[in-house]
Sequence to fold (160 residues):
Amino acid sequence: MLELDRVQQGKWPGIEVCSMAATILVAEDNEKNRQLIRDILLYHGFQVFEAENGAVAIEKAIRQRPDLILMDIQMPVMDGMTAARLIRTDPSLQGIPVIALTSFAMTGDRERLLEAGFDDYIAKPIDTRQLPEIVKRNLGNGIHEGNGIRPLSTGGTETC
Ligand code: MN
Fold:
């Protein structure tokens, strides 16, 4: 993970961690999973914020206004379902895609996730290729791998 450390610190020649890169909030209580997801997202040029439960996720979402939220379902203090429902009731957080991280694979669970306000879901164990694809799909147009082009909805396009 040496290369990723250098990218994170902005010391990798040719790769600039741009302050205008799309920001992803990762809410996940399992530290190893969180680290894996963070490394994948950093590698793809995203900025990452982390939360270890649903309550911290809501607090950080309000403060940092991420472009997208990845939300584990089973977490202590406040689970992902509850956090997603609360996010959907907060007017300041509307329009931010919330994607569930879940080991559930059944249709009924999928419907429950959508009903709770999730836009999409990513099945665990995390697939390192699928995760960035689903993130990009939910961010929509304007996000390009490796350089921080911000979607038009959050203040115009800017590159670095
Ligand atoms: Mn969990």
Notes: The CA atoms of residues 5 and 63 lie 25 Å apart. The chain has six helices and five strands. Residues 29-30, 72, 74-75 surround manganese (II) ion (CB under 6 Å). The first helix runs from residue 2 to 8.
